Amino acid sequence: MGGGEVNAMGTKMRRGIAVAIISAAMCLTGIVAANATVVGWGGRDVTFTPPTLNGPVDAMIQLKVGTNAGKYLIGGSFTNAGGNAAIDYVARLNADGTIDTGFTSPVLSAGTGTCNDGGTTSPTLTVRTLLETQTTSGSNTAGKIYIGGNFTNASGDAKMDYLIRVNASGGAANTGFYPTGNGLSTGTVSYTNCVQTMFTAEGSGATLNLVVGTQANGVSKEVFDTGANATGFTSPTINPSSGAITSGFYCTSGCGGNRYVLGGGFSGINSDTKLARLVRLTTAGAVDTTAYPTTDGTSAGTVLFDAKVNSIALDTSDNSILVGGKFTGKIAKVALSNFAPAAGYTAPVSGTGSTLDGDVWSVAVDPTDPEDPIGGNPSYVFAGGFTDGGDKPQCDYICNSDTSGNVGWYFESPPPTDVVRVVTVNSHADTNVGKYMIGGAFTDLGGNTSTDYVARLNQATPASITINSAGGNNAGGTDGIRTFYSNGQWQVLREGAGQ
To answer: Is the pLDDT of residue 246 over 60?
Structure first.
C-alpha cells in the first residue's frame, strides 16, 4: 500500500470516528436538549468570552512581544467595546477575550470617501490592518503598533492620515513616525485614501522597511523607523488607479529572489492586463515578469482572476499561495514560482457542486492539519460570505480543507450569522496555540448571541466532550453527557450520576 493510500485510509477512519461521535450524541436526544453543541474542531472555544462590540471587526493580530504576548489586537468600525465608548476602532483583548484596559485607543477621524471592503459595507472610518514591531529597529522599539485604515487627523494631527504608529499601550500617534515623504510633520502626506495592508521587508535595525498597499494609491515603501519614503523604490502603475492592494507578503526564496507578492483588485500593472490581481515586484518596484497569474504562468496564458483578490497566504510546505476573493471560483491555489495553478488542488465548491455562493474574504494556512493521521501536512482555513462549503452545509462563512481542497469532514464550526471578514491562526506558544480567531459582521455564533463580531474556534477535537443537559458545554464533572476515547473504544457516560 502506497503512502497516499495509507494517508487516505487513515483520514477516512478518523472521519468515520467523528461521524460516530456525532451519531452517538444524536441518539441521546432523549436526555440531552436539542440545542446542545458538540464543541470540537472548529467549534466555539468556550474559554474565550468576547467583549460586546457595536460594529464589525476588519483586522486582527495576535501579539508576540513582552507581557502582551498571546493577547489580541482587533480593529474595525466599532465605536464601543464592552460598554466603553472611549474604546473605539482599535482594542486589545486578553487571551480570554476580556478587554485589556491597559491599551488606550488612539483618537481617529473619518477618512475621505469610503474604504471598499468588497462586501456590503463601505465605512468612512475603519481600521483595516494592524502590525506589531517584533524586534527593535533603530529607534523603533519592539512592541509598538502600526495601524492602517480609513482615517485622518489621528490625535488631531493633520499629517497623520491613514497610517500611524502608537506605543504598545496605545494612546496618541507617535510623532517620531509620520506617513509623509520626509517622515516629518513638514512633509507631504503619502496617502489620500484607505490603507488596506502592510508588511515588513528587508534588512534589520534601521534598514527595515514597511511595504504599504492602499485602496487607490497603489503600493509604497516606507522607512520603518520614520515613515519617510524609502529611497530606490518606484511604484508601478496600478490599473485602474482605484484597484486596491488588499494583501501581501515579503518573499525571500522560491520566488526568483527577494520579492513583494501583492494581491488586490487591480486589472493590470503598467498596462499589462495579464498581471491581473496578483503580482510580484522586486524590492525596487520593478514588475517580475517571470510570474503571471495565468493558466500557464506566462503572458500567453489565460488570466486566473477575473475579479478582486481579497486575501493571500503563503504555504511554505510546498511553496504555494492560497488565494481568496470575489473571482470566479472564489478560492484558488497557485505556485509561488510562476503563479500557475498548483497541481493537485481543486477549489472547494458548494453542496450543489457549483461555485461557493459567496466571496472568500480571508484565507490562512494552519501549519498542522488535525485531521491528518500521519502528520506533517498543513490545512487551509477560508472565510467570507458563503453559506455552503463543499458537501458540508454547516460550513457557513468559515470552513477548512486539506491542501488538495477537500473540505474537512472533521471541521464543525457553529455557523456565524453573517460574513467573517478575517481569520487567523494563533502562533504564540501558549494553551491557545493553533486555535482560529475570526472577526467580521456576525452577531451570533451557533446560536450564542453573546458571541458577536469576534470569536475563537478550537483547532483540534478535545480528548473528551461534555454535552450539558441545559444545552451548554462544561468541563468534565458536571451533570451531562461525556464522550471520550479510552482502551480502544469510544465510551459514553452520564457525568453527574457517575454512570
So the answer is: yes
What is the per-residue DSSP string for 215-230?
SSS-EEEEETTT-PBP
pTM of the predicted structure, to 2 decimals: 0.86
- Hey, what's the cell of 475? 468541563
- Per-residue pLDDT of 287-306, as tens digits, reads 999 999 999 999 999 999 99
Residue 7 CB burial class (10 angstroms; 0-12, 13-18, ≥19): middle
Neighbours of 414 (CB within 10 A): 21
Position of cell 524609502?
230
333, 4 Cβ separation under 8 angstroms: no
What lies within 8 Å, CB to CB, of 397 at 6+ separation is 358, 383, 384, 385, 386, 387, 415, 416, 418, 419, 420, 440, 442
pLDDT tens digit string along 174-183?
A: 999 999 999 9
| Alpha helix positions (H), 260-375 | none
pLDDT of 485 reads 46
> Which residues touch 299 (CB under 8 Å, ≥6 apart)?
272, 274, 289, 292
- Are residues 45 and 438 in contact, defined by beta-carbon separation less than 8 angstroms? no
Contact 458, 435 (CB under 8 A): yes
Distance CA 266, CA 242 (A): 7
Buried b (16+ CB within 10 A) or exposed e, 269-278: beebebbbbb
Q: How many residues does the chain have?
A: 499
Q: Tell me what pLDDT residue 389 has.
A: 75
Strand ranges of the sheet holding 436-440, from the earlier edge strand across to the other edge? 420-425, 436-440, 454-457
Hey, how many other C-beta atoms are within 10 angstroms of the C-beta on 1? 7
User: Could you tell me the end-to-end alpha-carbon distance of the chain, in angstroms, rounded to an integer?
Assistant: 42
> Locate cell 516606507: which residue?
222
- Which of 349, 445, 443, 366 has the alpha carbon at shortest distance from 405? 349
69, burial (CB in 10 Å: exposed 0-12, middle 13-18, buried 19+): middle
pLDDT confidence tier of residue 467, bands split at 50, 70 and 90: low
